[in-house]
Design a protein that fits this description.
The chain is α+β, with helices and mostly antiparallel strands. It contains eleven helices and twelve strands.
Length: 384
């Protein structure tokens, strides 16, 4: 007499069809889930321990047409096989073929559902196509952004070149006016409101110089983007160079501001691009002066060790808001607390970073709002 299959034997079947690549599910006549394999779990993104013993319609991750599904359990039907469509939460549809297992030796029938492999593959192909389309869309957007950035740089470069000529003409005219005044001091001294005229001439001169500086910054950025900034390594005295720069900036500082420079160690000669280094320090010192109040200290420190050239610029200024520190080297970015100060382009630190990259160096900083900022710069020590 053949042995009757028990409920526990059907539960243990999962250990067998876990090895199968097709999604499989075993139900009893009450639609209770007795077993599922790993492929089925993966398709519907379920947790096996949470669905065993639950009725299929109670599982939120599996969707189907209830009326169509009920036909599987029609005891009067002569058809032992029935195909229904199951969907997961992502909307992917799978054809599942349910088979009535031999129930002649058991009190309750069992139903084995098998996910059609071709449908699974189609869903996978569709997902791959979606990923390809997404990748293509992202690539197109990146190319558009790159093209837009290139157009901006080209426009700034062209505009800067075009504006420099009339600005040079204005400066030339101002110089000629100064010469005419010097040549006729007697007539000028008798000129009514000559002090107001001089004041306005000085304002024009200062504005033109500021605008020229901004245009030169745009041109520099354009040249960097095009790779047209040559790096010329020369050997020079680092301490002497920085000391001279500090002396120049001390004259430009606010009342009570003190710029201190210290070089650590006996070694003073370095092999770097002197012009790029001067531009880096110029930008950092001018920012320190601009964003620090009167009667504060600005520190510049240099050191040459066995393998590295180190520079530190520290101020007691407004600092950089913590939430914006990750953007500080971005083009055209100005922290919100910097907007209260004189106009800037938001390009200074971006250019500093690019200069440092050209010299194969690194830059980092520590900053706290209303307490100041410290920049740390390092370059590899070139020996030849």
């Amino acid at each position: 007499m053949p042995k009757t299959k028990t409920h526990s034997q059907y539960l243990n079947i999962s250990t067998i069809f876990d090895e199968l690549p097709l999604g499989m599910i075993l139900l009893d006549s009450d639609k209770t889930i007795l077993a599922v394999n790993e492929a089925f779990i993966a398709i519907f993104h379920l947790i096996q321990q949470q669905i065993i013993g639950q009725q299929l319609e109670m599982i939120k991750g599996i969707h189907f047409d209830t009326e169509n599904f009920e036909e599987i359990f029609d005891k009067n039907s002569s058809n032992r096989k029935k195909i229904v469509e199951l969907k997961n939460n992502k909307g992917n549809a799978y054809k599942a073929e349910f088979i009535l297992l031999d129930s002649t030796h058991s009190k309750s029938p069992y139903y084995l559902g098998v996910i059609n492999k071709s449908e699974s593959e189609n869903a996978l192909k569709q997902e791959l196509e979606n990923q390809k389309a997404l990748k293509g869309s992202v690539k197109d957007k990146l190319e558009q952004e790159s093209e837009l950035s290139e157009m901006k740089s080209r426009f700034l470069s062209i505009a800067s070149h075009e504006f420099r000529t009339p600005l040079a003409g204005i400066l030339s005219s101002l110089n000629l006016i100064d010469r005419y005044i010097d040549a006729d001091q007697r007539g000028w001294s008798n000129f009514k409101n000559n002090d107001k005229v001089v004041n306005h001439l000085n304002k024009i001169n200062e504005s033109v110089k500021n605008l020229t500086g901004i245009l030169n910054t745009f041109l520099t950025l354009g040249n960097i983007e095009k790779g047209e900034i040559p790096v010329k390594y020369t050997r020079f005295n680092l301490q002497k160079t920085l000391k001279s720069q500090v002396s120049q900036f001390q004259e430009m500082s606010k009342p009570g501001q003190e710029i201190n420079y210290q070089h650590i160690g006996k070694e003073k000669m370095v092999l770097l691009d002197k012009n790029l280094l001067r531009n880096i320090i110029n930008n950092l010192l001018s920012n320190a002066i601009k964003f620090s109040p009167e009667n504060t200290k600005i520190e510049l420190l240099s050191e040459i060790d066995t393998n590295t050239i180190k520079l530190v610029v520290q101020d007691q200024g407004i600092g950089i808001p913590s939430r914006q520190q990750n953007k500080i080297f971005s083009r055209f970015f100005r922290a919100h607390n910097a907007l209260n100060y004189e106009e800037g382009t938001g390009l200074g630190l971006n250019i500093v970073k690019k200069y440092i990259d050209l010299l194969k160096g690194n830059i980092s900083f520590d900053s706290k709002q209303n307490m100041g900022t410290t920049f740390y710069i390092s370059f590899p020590k070139n020996k030849s």
